[in-house]
Amino acid sequence: MYCYRHPDRETGLSCSDCGRPICTDCMTAAPVGLRCPEHATHRPKPAQVARTAARTVGRAGLSARNAYVTQALIAINVGVYILTVVQGAGLNSPGGNVFSKGLLFGPLVADGDWWRLITSAFLHANLLHLLFNMLALWWFGAPIELFLGRARFVLLYLVSGLAGSAGALLASPTAATVGASGAIFGILGAALVLERQRMYVLGGSALTIIVINIVFTFTVSGISVGGHFGGLVGGGLAMLALSHFGRTHPTYGRNGLPGIVGVIVVGAIAVLVSYWKVKGIV
């Protein structure tokens, strides 16, 4: 990790309040740990706490509105769903050429329809499926995007989608699979890796969220178990690549190229796993 105020200084320290990495010049010792300059001030009065909380909530809302990639992904998913509803049999019965040409199905992938590995992540089986996935994408995707930056977040999302497709094919190669949940699980996997590196993008709750969603994965029928676990593993590996296995900060441009190449390698491995499976090698 590198100090968030001095990107050229490597450090193993972090603020006990926000989790951001800090160097020895930026740290302030406190009874409950080390603190960054922003959190090293004296405890304010209750009225000040209330005003600060209100301002923080307002800034958080404004920041989330700047998650343009997350918003664009949601818009694309909703737009594609509307198109498949128009071509299909109704609001909860999407279909038509876009749906049939985009869903994930092992035998068709083996015949050369490789685009299905990623297009299936933009299709949904019904309105509730779409709603849950888009809410999750907004809740979890926006903070990750704001932390990583737009380009890295797009790469993480797409690679997680490919890894989700690979997992789905490994588990059920002859089942028709659609949904963005593999990519969303990849976002959660990335958040878990960041939290293990003391960067709390989801407030330290990534593991709890993942456990809850895994319980739903096994208890609710019609969910692609392989897709969820594939995305989770792919997203975690991608974040490990971006952070050089915890040795650097994942958002620093100076160290970015090797990490980005590593993410691309994760995506390539996901495609190879899919190829081996549908061709009968695995």
Structure, explained:
With 282 residues, the protein is mostly helical. It has one domain (68-278): Rhomboid-like (Rhomboid-like fold, Up-down Bundle), CATH 1.20.1540.10. 61% of the residues lie in helices and 4% in strands. A two-stranded antiparallel sheet has the order 1-2. Helix 6 (127-148) runs parallel beside helix 8 (181-196), helix 7 packs across helix 8 (181-196) and helix 8 (181-196) crosses helix 10 (225-242). The longest helix is centred in the last third of the chain and has 23 residues, at 256-278. Mean pLDDT is 85; it is low at 42-62.
pLDDT averaged residue by residue: 85
- What gross morphology would you assign? elongated
The number of helical elements comes to: 11
Summing up helix and strand content along with how strands pair, one would put the structural category as mainly alpha
**What is the top-level CATH class?**
Mainly Alpha
Domain count:
1
What is the number of E strands?
Answer: 4
Name the beta content range.
Answer: under 5%
Strand order of the largest sheet: 1-2
Secondary-structure element order, N to C: EEEEHHHHHHHHHHH
CATH architecture: Up-down Bundle
